[in-house]
């Protein structure tokens, strides 16, 4: 793998040299490609248009992010920003001319790319539904192919941004895209719309339990599952760039909380309240503003156990609130909350 990693560093170095004027663009793209964006941005707007597609987005996002966690624990993928120092291949005279960014220092293993994997899975659900709708109206293969071309463009941009900021090697991005696409195609037809609350609760418990079993099994085999956190702390240029919400269990608690919240929402208010289009649009705007402010709420980072308890609770409440005045099928949005760990300026 040394050859693959070395080539990946050269690619990242070339990207930073040749596209340095696009730095702000790449940082924005990597932010929009964050798996949390599937819950914050993609879900509300798709649910506004189509209830089934919106539910599918949450479903696919949660499963793909959980599977990404499993892959990362098993594959032990390196990240460029720490591999440069750990490899021992570079001295002061041959050091790659690359630098880190605030979004670089993620604490989980690197393979496959979670940004690429979740983006590929979630956006496949969106573009395939949009493509089918466009074709049903136009009967034109050319016009209905436009969403798929945009899909490829988005994936390419997210992948390049991850390489640019030294968060991933190229092969990790490619693996994430292919795996996410496969998941999107597979899960698109298994939307749990109208399922009972017990289904969502049981499924969430299953995801959490399976991850914990794998965690314990790896530790029994002598594997330090927190190895990547140690390396991130060691090689990150600035300590305040280390964020607790990039640790593996953070995504797991978010996914389980979102699924339970979706189940509670469908159980308590399956249809929402019927509202005209104008009211729905206004509700979506208010919802977006609410998202922004809730996203800025600081969460406890010490003790870490409290952080992992608060995240799923807020996800559950957010999912219920969002579904109470549903987006699609003649209903209006209320508020979908996406929680960002505000401790970006603190070490976990």
From TrEMBL:
The keyword Hydrolase applies. The keyword Flavoprotein does not apply. Its main location: endoplasmic reticulum. One of its GO terms (molecular function) is glucose-6-phosphatase activity. One of its GO terms (biological process) is gluconeogenesis. Pathway: Carbohydrate biosynthesis; gluconeogenesis. It is a multi-pass membrane protein. It is found in: Endoplasmic reticulum membrane. Residues 53-188 form the Phosphatidic acid phosphatase type 2/haloperoxidase domain. Its EC number is 3.1.3.9. The chain crosses the membrane at residues 56-76, 116-136, 148-167, 173-191, 198-218. InterPro entries: Glucose-6-phosphatase (IPR016275), PAP2/HPO (IPR000326), PAP2/HPO_sf (IPR036938). Substrate binds at residues 79, 162. PANTHER family: GLUCOSE-6-PHOSPHATASE, GLUCOSE-6-PHOSPHATASE 3. Belongs to the glucose-6-phosphatase family. This is Glucose-6-phosphatase.
